[in-house]
Amino acid sequence: MNLRNTLGLLAVLGLISTASAQEAPVAPVVPAVPAAIAAPAAPAAGGFYVGVWGIDISSLAEMDEFKQMPPEQQKMALEQAAKMMGEATFEFTADQRMIMSFGGEKKEGTYKIVSDKDGKVVMEGTMMENGQPDTETLTLQMNGPKLKITGPDGKTITFIRK
Question: For 79-136, how does the pLDDT look when each residue is reduced to its tens digit (9 = 90+)?
Fold first, then answer.
């Protein structure tokens, strides 16, 4: 799975559901953020983005696609996302490597900073896909202790430091 597909999958997880439209509505369950995550460690030298990041499952509830679903679908989507993405990580190293772990698979690539202005970093990330380099532009920005990564399709995923 390449970077674009992974970010795309993360962005549409709110659309995954097996709920019936006739089931009674249930308030969505938003997982609590453990105290160890709520107070992240300081980033290593190289930029605010350097470190290991996990997907903030609770932030999926902020997506427009998610908000348009019935409450039971929202609950099921969050549960499915937690199962599928709970252990997924993105790591940015100070020596411009990026490591993506998802579903027991680990992929490594490189990144290059294109711009770094006003707390917003634009980078080009490259990973090998089918023996060919696959390069995508990502925009990273901190929002409190959370890292927001926007992919080439304009979808934004929120991460928390691991």
Answer: 998 988 888 999 999 999 999 998 889 999 999 999 999 999 999 999 999 999 999 9
Judge: domain 3-13+44-161, CATH 2.40.128.270.
Answer: yes
The C-alpha angle 47, 90, 119, rounded to 5 degrees, equals 30
Residue length, the chain? 162
Reference 138, options 104, 82, 100, 88; nearest CA is: 100
DSSP string for residues in 115-141: EEETTEEEEEEEEEETTEEEEEEEEEE
The C-alpha atoms of residue 120 and residue 34 are separated, in whole angstroms, by 27
Spatial separation of the C-alpha atoms in residues 158 and 142, rounded to whole Å: 9
What residue spans define the domains of the chain? 3-13+44-161
Select from 102, 127, 122, 101 the least CA-distant residue to 112. 122
Give the pLDDT confidence of 22-46 residue by residue, as tens digits: 333 333 344 443 433 333 443 444 7
Question: What does residue 131 show for φ and ψ, rounded to 5 degrees?
Answer: 80, 5
| Predicted structure pTM score | 0.70
